[in-house]
Records
---
Amino acid sequence: MIKVLQKSILLITFAIIIAGLFGLSYAIDQTTGTEVLEQAVPEEPVTVEVPSMMYSVGIGDILSINIKDSPEFSGNFPVHDKGWIMYPMLGEIKAAGLTLLEIEAAIKEKLEKEYLYDPVVNISINRYGSRKVEILGGMGNPGAYYISGTTRLFDLFIRAHMIYSNYGENMKGRMVRILRKGAVDGKTEKDSAVLLIDLFKLLVDVDDEANIYLQDGDIIYVPGGTAYIYVVGEVMRPGSFTHQMDMTVLKAITLAGGPTKAADVNNTFVKRIINDKEVVKVKVEMPDVLQPEDIVEVPLSFW
């Protein structure tokens, strides 16, 4: 009897060893109360987001700059409010609005010119600063969103609950309009420029070029089946509202919950898109009548 027991213990031990080697484990069958072997479920692989070298750096980001074999030129550098980093020996270097590749090239050129022979420069993002964008139009939850890192247009569509029923077969030829400050296609606008994104290419063709990276301050307008006006900035409930005949600036701000305590209502203005290309900034008064697709912006008071 003892020998039989010893033999059973050896067999169980051997089975446990084999189970460990082949990724098997013991579990209790809840119906019979007996132990059964089951295949171990592999853990999900850990993925780390690697920022694109085409990522546009913004204020508040912290850059990790490494110069091979030159620790005196390496470290973490925050992008200050005026858009530059303070770099050893070189002083202020423009960073905001440039890609990581462009900053790498600028630093390499300056170091090579003054201090190092053929320096190897590597830049990555140590930490992302918070950025705010606004999405308006055919969304379940339009309004302001804070983004960080390499957030792309479709990522925001998911967060804002895009209403696909607004489009259906009519999606072809519909354009998402993005109001963006700064340079577009080599042309610098004083205020804003308009980027046009083909909705069909983005959602149906899954075109990577259409799924652009978002930047701080972007205002994204997604067309819907109804004419809207949009209220952004210092209001209680920024978002989109159905355009009505003779709708005034005052009524639009009222629909948005009214101004916040920090609002400068007297300097309210409208951004109006002309021919899908030009953005006109219009100073308005409360009784002024709005046009469909106007964007009413209530600025922050500095007093």
---
Amino acid sequence: MPLTDRARIATSAGSPLPGEAIWQAVSRDGTHPMQTERAVHLLPLPALADNYIWLLHDDNGQAIVVDPGQSAPVEHALIKHGWQLRAILLTHHHDDHIGGVAGLLANHPVPVYAPDDARIPSASVHVADRGHVRLAAPQVDFEVIAVPGHTRSHVAYYGAGVLFAGDTLFSLGCGRLFEGTPAQMLTSLDRLATLPGDTQLCCAHEYTVANGRFAQTVEPGNTALAARLAEVRRLRDNHQPSLPVSLASELATNPFLRIDVPAVIDWCRRHHQPPADRTARFACLRAAKDVFHA
């Protein structure tokens, strides 16, 4: 599915597990003049301390899972809803994203799509930048986007109007730089920022409240940010995920996607970074977030 595809996201009927929310997207088949629509649904599964494992399924119960750090939440959801696992997608090698793969493969002999990295021994299909993951059931087509920064081999998957960003882009924040450089991460974020505004961001951690506190120190006058953070607090108070969220919302509120906005440039100037250097501004912002305590 090309990068111009769109999806409609809305609350979907169903009985989610505690702490879960079910969302619906529409996958469009651009190969036919009378574009057919196939509903696919998103289910974020809370796992470990603050991870989300993403399940995507169609109306026939065919499912894929993204970044299963644990197998038990996935197995629970599959059994509860009567879904059949068809594939596993991995964004990077960290154990909180791949720790459940072996357990799932023991019960579900499915392909595992992952970047070419020796630290992901369970991968059966290696993916690369601008490649595709095309599945018949559920019928989806994801473009692979290389996003080095958090790790050197990190990838994201975009399709059906949904972006599985792993630990590269968070709501109101971005991932730490464990293996990449500020220049690499900024380039990765710049690429993701070009996706359609109605793209639904599905990241792998519930960091939104903490990220929002830092973002408000950078742009205290950003009314869209204040509104988003109030919404997030309401959701979390009701034990609901703050995700997915539209990329348009992130472009209006996330300081790491707003490196060229005057308020962010001013913040960097106050922190002694030359405002003309985008990479230096990003590095300054990321370093400040690394030591920030609300």
---
Amino acid sequence: MSEIAQYTSLIPAGLDTQLDKLEGWHKAHGGPVHTVNHSREHAVLAPRLPDWVIPVEVRFAQRFGRDYLPLPTLLAAIRRTCPAQATRIVLANSDSEIAHPQAIDSLRAPGCDLLFAGRGDIDVEGRPAGIYDQGYDVFSLSPDALELLDLKGVFLGLPWWDYVLPLSSILTGRSVRRLDTDAFTHRLHPQRWSLVGFNHIGWQVMRQLLPGAMCSGAPSADGVLEFARVANSFLNSDVFASDSPPDPARVRAGFLAIVAQETGLRMDGRGGPAAQIGMLAQFAGLHAALYALYREAIEQPETPGLAARLAALEPQAHAAGLAGQESFRRYGKLIGLRRGPPA
């Protein structure tokens, strides 16, 4: 039996593609893959699953219009079904692939409470598109660190769940390390997250993880975006790049100091509702224009002037704040990859 217990949450749409990717994981560690799903999805999935996938049925209130799995529900499912011999619990998105099976050994991570890893992106033509640096797809936890999942208001597959695990590890003084590798891959697709959901969940994360004084006052969209920027920069820094975890106490103190320095003025609710609504409206218009260009690049890649039309949206991206700039960068990358390098 494998000492690695793997968990994910399959979705009914595109099931065969997900299973094709997860089979590589199953073969790499030799154990089953558990999929945790609400009863509604469980009823659809269970009859279609191979014997190496173990369906775990749960119930929870639906949020954001779909059966997104709450992390505390995932935690309860793992505690109920995790094999006794498991020494590591691996969480991976259902569309993540292990390109190098031997990389499974790097997830065993003895002496580390949490190991987190990014992914190598693959474009629509099947070509490598670089390492994704705005989130993480693979996590390896020791059984003693499972309580990191006990965070309300955070859901698998929605913004922040991938930041929550390393951030929670840092702020509770656990040992944490980042694995830098292209062994885990993912096919590029347009981002599906909502800015409203990003802000709402982000504020819940901040209130649960940060000292209360840092999150006093009304929720601030600017504060959430600034916190996301600082967290992403810190998690991608050299602090976590060594082969052994850094000192937990020093990491926690350093992170809180950086948060206070970089975002302290932005976490007090400044920028009233009118300003926030205006930025949301700008972002919505920008996102619609970027997505239209992306679809045009797919359907009519030889259309002249796409690059110029993309560049013309850059001022609008800056006016829409950090979220606008990030969407501009991501869609610009997708459009450029779809059209190919200049002649």
---
Amino acid sequence: MKLANRILGVVSAILIIAGAVVYALNAPMARLLLVFGVLGACLSALRLWLIQSKNDALTFNRIVGYLAFTFIICGALFKLLYIPGANMLLVIGTGLLVMQFLPVYLLLDLSEKKTTEPEKPLHFAMPPINEPVEKEAIAEPVIKGKELDSLAVPTMQGLIIVKTNEISHCEADDKYTRIFVDGKKMMLASQTLGYFEDLLKDSGFIRIHHSYLINLKHLKNYIKGEGGQVVMSNDVVLDVSRRKKTALLDAISNPN
């Protein structure tokens, strides 16, 4: 999804630049290039904007905000290019912006941002339910040798506790990390992939790509290639970089 969004953004930028050049040269197709470029940029912005949505109300408001800005941008573009309907688009966009998006954004979105600061992931023991909870059991990480047993992952909704052996792989998402648990659930953690690589390097995890950290316990098979690919227990296929190939094969051949 992230790669597709980047491609869309690059293509949109190329269309906008090409449209501006063609328009300056008074050549045909300038309006079409500019319109498609702007629409592509708006769609790319929508995908990036909604990925961090916290709840349904904010998601709906962000969609309304996206539509408002899209109408305003397209209206301004249509007016510049003398395309009919420019005034209508500007009126609709301004109305959505003033009557819906800005009030909800100022009341809900900003206030929620102030109360949801990212927390650092914790790793600690999960004491048995029927036994008394001791401070030492929570304060110290669970280590079997050097292996972590449990992980508390900070998300936008709060801390989610998972067992490390249930994590199939982690995927970088800019300054965040997508953590996949048993192939059934994905959570977005507010730490980089490098953080989790350092945290889990002694727990059977290995970095196979600048975007991927995998749990060797969930590795099904390796597919040969320049860097190759791995198939995980949830049937997800991930690329292996050439630089990481040797380390991965060594880890597979010589498990600890």
